[in-house]
Amino acid sequence: MRWSKYLIPTLKEDPAEAEAVSHKLMVRAGLVRMLAAGIYVYLPLGQRVMEKINAIIREEMNRIGGQEVTMPVIHPAELWQQTGRWYDIGDEMFRLKDRNKRDMCLGMTHEEVVAWLASKEVRSYRNLPQIWYQIQTKERDEARPKSGVLRTREFLMKDSYSLDMDEAGLDRSYELHREAYCRVFERCGLRFYVVESDPGMMGGAGAHEFMAPSPAGEDEVAICSSCGYAANIELACSQPNKPAFPSWRLEEVATPDCRTIEQVSSYLGIDPGLTIKSLMVVTQEGPLLCLVRGDQRLHEKKLFRLIGEFRPAHRDEIKKISQAEAGFIGPLGIDLPILADSCLQEGVYVAGANKDGYHIRGVIPGQHFKARYADLHLAQTGEGCPKCGNTLTVECAIEVGNIFKLGIKYSVPLKAHFLDEKGEARPIIMGSYGIGPARIAAAAIEQNHDANGIIWPKSIAPFQVHLLVVNVSDPKMREMAERLYEELCRNGIEVLFDDRDERPGVKFKDADLLGIPIRVTVGTLAIKEGLVDIRVRRTGEEVRVPEGEGVNRVKARLGGVM
Ligand code: ATP
Ligand code: MG
């Protein structure tokens, strides 16, 4: 491809609103342009990257027996009404009416359509298992589209769906996907973890996410480098480090105006880990007191999974029940069910006295109050791994893919049944599996760049070789570059030929920005001595070789780079 005839609008400056490195570089390298919030145009270079990624995904999906289909982006509301998601999903769903005033929506995902199709086309256990996949546009009116293509309102997703006759079949399909996904992300040059995750709105029995560590990620994962434990922070457990417990006797202590854990612990001169944080919430069944250790944070999602919908108690409710203000409430002598974080099962603490201006020191959970214990705290870096006890680290990551065991959540309402060996109708057991190609591209940039630009992993680079002619107006230089271009292309190498009439400085800067793995430069030495420069973008290594050896050297280099 000749740059002079190609649309690669590189920019010197970062786009004003961009924070994520991948966002800045994708715009500056001329891969994408934003049409509206969270809605992007892929320019030729960006399109090539996406096609590379999609081809890898296709190969790996085909390898596990996936069959490619295309399902519509526009769906009749009835399907979504039957599963209830029409009502459960809020503003994230784009809804519209057709000319006959019938409700329609734009597909956010395709479980409903798959279950509908299965209800029509799968008859018997002999038709199972099936894996259907597509690489199709999804529409979601995301609340906060941001970070370039990492979270957009229209995006491409490879979504696949497994149909099985029993749980054992689902386990096999799930495992096939897990392996295929690992191969996809490895081939795309990503560092990633497979983590346990919360099935959330998909429902179902088990779920994993594929997380590419990056500061631009909106997710957090807890990782143990000793035993390999890895979990989304929404599920992650940890063993908080134990403070040295003093031998206190039970007594009331004045803590004037000390309402927060920081105030109480500094006033009493103690480690915040020796205090109990008490939070009153109101659930469907009434008020409840939740306790976490003072140095911990209550994990609202964990609490939600235990008690369902809840809200913080209002001031007057707190006063009425505890006779005290929020900063002084505690588990002793309060007439409320108590739910406490598991780590409080051990130790002695300072807790609110249910009396304004006072706390109680020497509180021993189990001895001085009764509670139900559960994991309620947010895991933090430095705490113990729940599996092996070694140190956990919590880091930001980009969710590039996920896999869910759905079970019969969609097949029952949409009547996706099959006849088993005895001729009895049973619901098909489903799994659902997603990958975001744009997130792979962005995550690859997040993990592979330097101050000068992108460093593409070879497998997903828009081109393999960047051929740069220093002075296109010099006939000899041009001639040699043209010869090399032809020969490289003839050898099946994808070449971007920078044949623009631009200053060399601009061309070199652009080459670094674009991040194509190998750069071949035809400059003054080319005409003087017949030499060309071959440079590896990732390492900066450069060799000077006679023109005749150029193509073979390029091939050898390509074999060696990631
Ligand atoms: P998130 O939690 O980040 O919103 P999700 O759980 O909604 O993701 P799924 O609905 O399971 O994601 O989609 C499967 C894959 O599609 C994700 O792993 C991700 O790679 C990609 N994806 C999801 N939402 C977006 C989006 N708004 N923009 C770009 N890619 C997305
Ligand atoms: Mg989402």
Helix-strand layout with pairing:
Layout: H1 21-28, E1 32-36, E2 39-42, H2 44-63, E3 67-68, E4 74-76, H3 77-83, H4 85-88, E5 95-97, E6 103-106, H5 111-121, E7 130-139, E8 154-164, H6 167-187, E9 193-196, E10 206-213, E11 219-224, E12 230-232, E13 251-254, H7 261-268, E14 276-283, E15 286-293, H8 300-307, E16 310-312, H9 315-322, E17 338-341, E18 349-352, E19 358-363, E20 372-374, E21 392-407, E22 417-419, E23 425-427, E24 429-435, H10 437-447, E25 449-450, E26 453-454, E27 465-469, H11 475-490, E28 495-498, H12 504-514, E29 518-522, H13 524-529, E30 531-536, E31 542-546, H14 550-560
Parallel strand pairs: 3-7, 15-17, 17-20, 27-28, 27-29
Antiparallel strand pairs: 1-2, 4-6, 5-6, 7-8, 8-24, 9-10, 10-21, 11-12, 11-21, 13-19, 14-15, 14-16, 18-19, 21-24, 22-23, 25-26, 29-30, 30-31
Helix pairs in contact: 1-10, 2-6, 2-10
Residues 109, 140, 142, 151-152, 155, 157, 399-402, 434-436, 438-439 line the site of adenosine-5'-triphosphate.
What does this protein structure show overall?
The protein starts with 20 loop residues before the first helix and ends with a helix. The radius of gyration is 30 Å and the shape is globular. β27 (465-469), α11 (475-490) and β28 form a beta-alpha-beta unit. The strands form eight sheets. Strands 3, 7, 8, 9, 10, 11, 12, 21 and 24 form a nine-stranded mixed β-sheet that branches. The chain has a five-stranded mixed β-sheet with strand order 16-14-15-17-20, with no helix packed on it. It has a five-stranded mixed β-sheet with strand order 28-27-29-30-31, sandwiched between helices. α1 packs across α10 (437-447), α2 packs antiparallel against α6 (167-187) and α2 (44-63) packs across α10 (437-447). It has three domains: 52-236 and 394-438, BirA Bifunctional Protein, domain 2 (2-Layer Sandwich); 251-374, Alpha-Beta Complex (YbaK protein); 463-560, Anticodon-binding domain (Rossmann fold, 3-Layer(aba) Sandwich), CATH 3.40.50.800. By secondary structure, the protein is α+β, with helices and mostly antiparallel strands. The mean pLDDT is 95. The longest helix is centred in the first third of the chain and has 21 residues, at 167-187. The structure holds adenosine-5'-triphosphate and magnesium ion.
